[in-house]
Amino acid sequence: MAATATTGDRTSAKILLTSLSAMVAESATFPIDLTKTRLQLHGQSLPSPSSAAAARPAAATAFRVAADIVRRQGLPGLYQGLSPAIVRHLFYTPIRIVGYENLRNAVDAGDRSLSLPGKALAGGVSGVVAQVVASPADLVKVRMQAAGRMVSRGLQPRYSGPLDAFGKIVREEGVPGLWRGVFPNAQRAFLVNMGELACYDQAKRFVIQNQIAEDNIFAHTLASIMSGLSATALSCPADVVKTRMMNQATNKDGKAMYLSSYDCLVKTVKFEGIKALWKGFFPTWARLGPWQFVFWVSYEKFRTIAGMSSF
């Protein structure tokens, strides 16, 4: 009984520490995430097939998008949608981080050690479960981030705040509407966590075992950079599709712009080119790197303070 209680207390502590670390990391890097989302939505209004070549949207860069947000909305505009983003991480991050660690430790017991493909699978599965649970908050976050684009065009935003967004989505789209885009969302979560968790875990162990650095901030920084690049390269196309699926609204005829994530993928490539699938790659990586650095350094430090072993 004592061992069970200790295990339960330890899991509860990990959940608390991951939540705190995620809140710090999300707040520090949110403007980059907002820029990435706006950049991915750039050019979303699709032209008719006959005028596709002539009406392609003008090129946009992360710097131009961020500068335009500040010019039109001021610095607070860079934090449009922060509250639902933090709520999302109160569910998303603990489930995926603690879930992955428990799966890994279950196999690592004794002389066995989880292989890299096994870590990738464990990370992917943990990410999918976490994302499905957190999908409503993620939907509101994307809608709130996109609302600023409507304001910049002189249009009335769809929602006045996170609670208003939740309420209107349920009234207009039903409870299942809170999980709009959950399939591409889960796809992205699998790819992100497959690259992020497995790569961070493997890279950190490689750095320490080869005496490149001890188990400290330098090892965590190197591991987070490598995992950030891996996660971004794998997940960016799914992230673009997810963002557009979650943000789309029905037209006057009651039809959605995209029938499915596959339809969104095809139309994006058809009207904007294959490179459009990696829209926001730099701000995505630029956010994942700092986000992981802040998160992992905070989390590892909190674990040390709490008397726990390293991740």
Which series of helices and strands comes N to C? HHHHHHHHH
Separation, N- and C-terminal Cα atoms? 25 Å
Gyration radius (Cα, Å) is: 20 Å
Shape: globular
Task: Describe this protein's structure.
The protein is 72% helix and 0% strand. The protein is mainly α and 311 residues long. α6 packs antiparallel against α7 (217-247).
What's the topology here?
Blueprint: H1 2-41, H2 62-73, H3 82-108, H4 116-152, H5 162-173, H6 182-209, H7 217-247, H8 261-272, H9 281-305
What would a concise description of this structure say?
The protein is mainly α. Helices cover 72% and strands 0% of the residues.
List keywords for this structure.
311 residues, mainly alpha, 9 helices, 0% strand, disordered N terminus
